[in-house]
From TrEMBL:
It comes from the Bacteria. SUPFAM superfamilies: Glutathione synthetase ATP-binding domain-like (SSF56059), PreATP-grasp domain (SSF52440), Rudiment single hybrid motif (SSF51246). Belongs to the PurK/PurT family. Catalyzes the ATP-dependent conversion of 5-aminoimidazole ribonucleotide (AIR) and HCO(3)- to N5-carboxyaminoimidazole ribonucleotide (N5-CAIR). Residues 97-288 form the ATP-grasp domain. The keyword Ligase applies. One of its GO terms (cellular component) is cytosol. This is N5-carboxyaminoimidazole ribonucleotide synthase. ATP binds at residues 93, 133, 138-144, 173-176, 181, 204, 258-259.
Length: 384
């Protein structure tokens, strides 16, 4: 079996590594030059893109910002999963909001802005505390601005004045006082089989995910059911095939959708060590219409896992492998500020055990690059 992934980064690499034991060969497309490459070594393979499409049993993506012409070519093959419409929803916040509205799925109150003069009505209708997002090409905190008071509006307009809002409108959202950020990762096969992983709690710093813990602490059965209901409405409504990530804000007992990612997702990396079937394997199973694997935590109901991103640094000590339950993943990139260099997965028998392991792990890391780790370790150590 052959799968062709558009994008040649770490997500394609991890799909390759999880596909190999199943006899699934994964190739990748460098979308900057349309070259077909090995997902791990990045060495060019002896195929044209057209040959690789013909050879593949399924086509998929590792990120949503694939040039649309490539997506159209892939869609024409009849092998692209998820389909082009779902991928474009993930790449365009206007389409995303339209989808959520059409399926009556709760999300942040918002307005679409294609002229700066409309920002005044946003303040009137949504309040003076706003999150402003470019509808396309924004990620990891890029393409986002904040309005904290109406007095800041003139300066914000000046900052946004050079943007072509007719080409790329803004999505302006009410800034919510949410309790926490969580995400649900799940998969759906073309036959309609659905599995979901435990709800994960996510800690962000400067717009980037730093730590995920699954299952999220203090998650009630009602909250998990609400998240699964949102996920099921989305995947069935889009006739979706593959892994989908749903990022959510928890406001009291209500979940509001923040963003969708039509692919394997950073907040699901914990599943590599913490679940019988990783998100990467389940994505491959889904796009090839194979039976989906278990998506529960390994080790029973009390088991818990964490994922810690390594961002913009390479000064960790490999002695961190001495911490029981630690699994290290390195992407082989050159260091750059805010760049995801790798991640660390940690499995534990309880939240307190996880907190203790994170405290031990912090001894081998430069904590300036892991600003959420110590506080999260201490919090988890106190969870009963």
């Amino acid at each position: 079996m052959q799968v062709l992934v558009y994008g040649a980064g770490q997500l394609a690499q991890m799909m390759y590594l999880d596909g190999a034991p199943l006899g699934i060969n994964v190739m990748a497309v460098d979308v900057s030059n349309n070259a077909v490459v090995h997902p791990v070594s990045k060495a060019p393979l002896d195929y044209t893109l057209e040959q690789a499409i013909e050879l593949a049993d399924a086509l998929t993506v590792e990120f949503e910002h694939v040039p649309e012409a490539l997506l159209q070519q892939a869609e024409a093959s009849g092998k692209l999963h998820p389909g082009i419409d779902a991928i474009l929803v993930g790449a365009d916040r206007v389409r995303e909001k339209q989808l959520l509205s059409s399926l009556a799925i709760p999300n942040c109150p918002y307005q679409i802005v294609d002229d700066l003069t409309q920002l005044d009505s946003c303040v009137e209708n949504l309040g003076e505390r706003l999150i402003i997002k470019a509808s396309r090409d924004g990620y990891d905190g890029y393409g986002q601005w904040r309005l904290k008071a109406a007095t800041e509006l003139p300066a914000l307009k000046s900052q946004l004045a050079e943007l072509d809002l007719k080409a790329v409108p803004l999505v302006v959202e009410k800034m919510l006082n949410f309790d926490r950020e969580v995400s649900l990762i799940g998969a759906r096969s073309s036959g309609g089989e659905v599995v979901v992983y435990p709800l994960a709690e996510n800690l962000h710093h400067e717009g980037q995910l730093h730590v995920s813990v699954a299952p999220a602490s203090a998650s009630t059965a009602a909250l998990n059911d609400q998240a699964k209901d949102i996920f099921t409405k989305l995947v069935n409504g889009m006739d979706y095939v593959g892994v989908l990530a749903v990022e959510l804000f928890q406001c009291g007992d209500e979940l509001l959708v923040n963003e969708l990612a039509p692919r394997v997702h950073n907040s699901g990396h914990w599943s590599q060590a913490g679940s019988p079937t990783s998100q990467f394997e389940n994505h491959l199973r889904a796009v090839l219409d194979l039976p989906l694997g278990l998506a529960c935590n390994t080790g029973g109901e009390a088991a818990v896992s964490a994922m810690i991103n390594i961002i913009g640094c390479d000064d960790h000590q490999m002695a961190l492998l001495s911490v029981p339950g630690v699994h290290f993943h390195w992407y082989g990139k050159s260091v750059r500020q805010k760049r995801k260099m790798g991640h660390i997965n940690v499995t534990a028998s309880s939240y307190a055990d996880l907190g203790s392991k994170l405290q031990k792990l912090s001894e081998y890391l430069s904590l300036a690059h892991f600003p959420c780790l110590t506080d999260e370790a201490n919090r988890l150590a106190s969870v009963s």
